[in-house]
Design goal:
The chain is built from 10 helices and 24 strands. The chain is of the alpha+beta class. Strand 2 and strand 3 form a beta hairpin.
């Protein structure tokens, strides 16, 4: 069942800032003696026992002497807020391990994020007066991953968790790789800032405002350690030693650990999350398989990374202003019910924003089943796109030359550093008008006729390409785009706008196996599957649908040499060569996009 819903009227008092809290810092000992720096903030003037709401983070709690304003609706309801530096970060002892995998269960002395959360909750229950014996855990991004881990072998007092934009599988689709393609600028900048020091105090060596030029001049990835990191960044060393989906990445992936929700779980994400869009959907899907008690919930909004916690990150093209509605009418009542026995459960199984019509939709299953019809959107000769398969006699392919020396920028230049404090468009690049690549010969487009009626897509979006290359490897980046009419009277600035609705990339060498790459046969049409993940979006009447294919997306993704190099991190400058790629569209080689069209919409 699918229905359009309006967020319920406010039930909590609206206020700009949380009420006063008294905060203190403590060092909490873990089972192996390592002490973790922790802040405990209790509301002033509250006498009733209150639950703990815990956030664990690698980003530092030094300034956590007040409750964040994004917690204001929770704070109005009354919680003891706890923030903690994880191992090896800022004020905590121990060694930091990026996305620490679960310890071997045979090791009775092993520690990981699940044991540290358990030990923290145990200490809080025993040492902080005025608690009601319950705890919840929430966090965004890396802290979202930590919230997920809190639900694995949880302490009995943990009654609810909310992983928000959790990094779930950093090779398959979150921070570091996407289906084999390495996220160069993000991987370099994030790993360097996290591991050159334990407090992000060492500046990155980037000396150009336009990082497109800096990364192009960097040359082969082997230059990173030779010139800059010199082996001092463990995560970068992991990239180099483990470019494929081997046991290192598989052990760090969270979704295989999630058999069913041990406690009620509210997973939150954004459709235009530039860092961890894969994680929320993968977390929800993994938990849903074993959810027999209806404790698994999903919210996907019109947000970038963590945008629901910060109104300043609103993206007007897709978001009419939804942050307070989520924080006040979804998150606060949800935690209130499970941690304070307050109110009645009213959260739908899946609550998803449809930016095409600017409204929330509720589903009792996700992806939806009732009223869902699988369809194929076919690429045709002449740059056209339709639900009809290609016919005999059409030009059999479109082709383009992909040159690693002149890669397609992933957003308009100049491309600032990811987290440049002087200003960066990193957080909004996924909603940027795609017309900036119009005219490039290395981007191929197919466009439908204007739609005669609204078309709601809800569920998986998958590209099935039949493609060939003159080289031995190739990347395939695919975008599904909502093309607005040339004239939009109610929003003139959106006239002709090209909004990415779904997009993804995959490295061709992994077309058969993500664990065992192999070279491509030159000049041979081969099948490639590019998972564009899930979406709930209405293409409005009068809009057109567009599909674009390209083979570079720089510098967010590294350049594929397009020759066969067993490990691209060891490629030489001479390995990078321009190649001609073809995307086929014939009756027997019909490249297409698989979508699910909803026919029953309320």
């Amino acid at each position: 069942m699918v229905g359009a819903i309006a967020v319920a009227p406010p039930t909590l008092p609206a206020q700009d800032f949380p009420p006063p809290h008294s905060c203190r810092f403590v060092k909490i000992s873990m089972r192996d003696g390592v002490r973790l720096n922790t802040s405990v903030c209790q509301p002033e003037g509250r006498r009733e026992p209150l639950p703990f709401l815990i956030t664990r983070t690698p980003y530092g709690i030094a300034a956590d002497t007040t409750v964040p304003s994004s917690y204001r609706f929770l704070a109005a309801d009354g919680y003891i807020f706890v923030s903690q530096d994880i191992r090896g970060r800022y004020g905590s002892e121990g060694q930091f391990v990026m996305q620490h995998p679960l310890h071997d269960t045979a090791d009775s002395n092993g520690v990981d994020e699940t044991t540290d959360t358990y030990d923290t909750v145990q200490w809080l229950l025993r040492n902080v007066p005025g608690n009601n014996g319950r705890a919840g855990v929430l966090g965004v991004s890396y802290p979202g991953f930590l919230a997920t881990m809190a639900g694995i072998n949880p302490h009995p007092a943990v009654r609810a968790i909310s992983p928000q934009a959790p990094m779930t599988d950093t090779w398959m689709g979150d921070d570091f790789f996407h289906q084999g393609a390495f996220r160069l600028s993000y991987g370099f900048e994030y790993a360097g800032s996290m591991e050159l020091s334990n407090d992000q105090s060492v500046p990155l060596p980037i000396d150009k405002w336009d990082t497109y030029d800096w990364y192009l001049q960097l040359g082969p990835l082997s230059n990173v350690n030779a010139r800059y990191f010199r082996g001092r960044v463990p995560t970068w060393n992991a990239f180099v030693a483990h470019p494929a989906y081997d046991t290192l990445w598989q052990k760090r992936a969270v979704q295989p650990l999630l058999k069913s929700p041990a406690v009620p779980t509210l997973t939150v994400g954004g459709w235009w999350d530039q860092e961890d869009r894969f994680g929320p959907l993968a977390t929800y899907e993994a938990l849903e398989r074993g959810d027999t008690a209806n404790r698994n919930f999903l919210v996907m909004g019109p947000w970038n990374h963590g945008g629901w916690r910060n109104p300043s990150r609103q993206m007007p093209v897709v978001d009419p202003g939804t942050q307070d509605a989520y924080l006040k009418d979804v998150e606060a009542p949800w935690f209130g019910y499970y941690l304070k026995d307050k109110g009645l459960p009213r959260q739908p199984e899946a609550m998803l924003f449809d930016a095409g019509v600017m409204r929330w939709r509720s589903f009792d299953t996700w992806p939806p089943r009732n009223g869902a019809t699988p369809k194929r959107l076919y690429l045709h000769a002449g740059g056209t796109l339709s639900f009809d398969p290609p016919g005999a006699g059409e030009t059999p392919f479109d082709q383009y030359v992909s040159d690693p020396a002149h890669p397609v920028p992933y957003r308009p230049r100049p491309i600032e550093q990811t987290y440049d404090l002087r200003g960066s468009r990193w957080r909004t690049w996924e909603t940027i008008d795609q017309r900036f690549v119009t005219g490039r010969p290395d981007v191929v487009s197919w466009v439908s006729e204007p739609l005669q009626e609204d078309l709601l897509l809800a569920g998986d979006v998958t590209a099935r390409l039949i493609a060939s290359t003159t080289g031995r490897d190739a990347d395939w980046a695919v975008k599904l785009i909502d093309v607005f009419p040339d004239s939009v009277p109610e929003a003139w600035q959106l006239g002709g706008y090209q909004l990415m609705v779904a997009h993804e990339i995959m490295r061709g060498r992994y077309r058969k196996s993500f664990s065992k790459p192999e070279p491509l046969a030159p000049n041979t049409p081969l099948a490639f599957t590019v998972d564009l993940h899930q979406q709930s979006h209405t293409f409005r009447k009068g809009h057109r649908m567009m599909v674009q294919v390209q083979s570079t997306w720089f510098p967010i993704y590294d350049r594929n040499p397009q020759t066969w190099v067993p490990n691209i991190f060891h490629a030489k400058a001479s390995d990078f060569r321009a190649q001609t790629h073809r995307v086929w569209h014939t009756p027997t080689r019909a490249s297409h996009i698989e979508v699910t069209v909803m026919s029953q919409v309320k």
